[in-house]
Design a protein that fits this description.
By secondary structure, the protein is an alpha/beta fold. It is 36% helix and 32% strand. The N terminus is likely disordered.
């Protein structure tokens, strides 16, 4: 169960045995970006087909949170894992678009949309 006093929480789920979903909620900033960095480091591994980072519950996405996503994307690229970001809220999309990272990440509107990519 997520810690309600934490600025950001990440819950790990699986769409399929080889597709992991990291459901992020709260505020991703300098003090809380480690909440995402740790799970990205441990779940973006060879043998996985994909990692989906769901930012649907994010209220604030600061530069440190964006950096965690970039590092996750880089790690995924090195290990041959597809990296998708679920971003449909203003709190998540605006900083991604403002920094041009929408050209770097594969962005989908929902976890269901991501799941459709892997239902075969």
């Amino acid at each position: 169960m997520p810690d309600p006093t934490a600025l950001a929480t990440v819950v790990v789920d699986r769409l399929t045995p080889d597709v992991v979903v990291l459901r992020v909620s709260g505020e991703l900033d300098t003090t809380s970006s480690g909440s995402l960095t740790g799970p990205l480091e441990s779940h973006v591994t060879e043998g996985l087909r994909a990692v989906v980072v769901d930012l649907g519950g994010v209220r604030f996405l600061g530069s440190a949170g964006l950096e965690a996503l970039v590092l996750g994307q880089q790690r995924a690229s090195k290990t041959g894992v597809e990296f998708l970001v679920v971003a449909s809220t203003r709190a998540a999309l605006r900083p991604i678009e403002a920094t041009g990272l929408d050209a770097v990440f594969t962005i989908v509107r929902s976890v269901d949309e991501a799941a459709q990519r892997f239902s075969s």
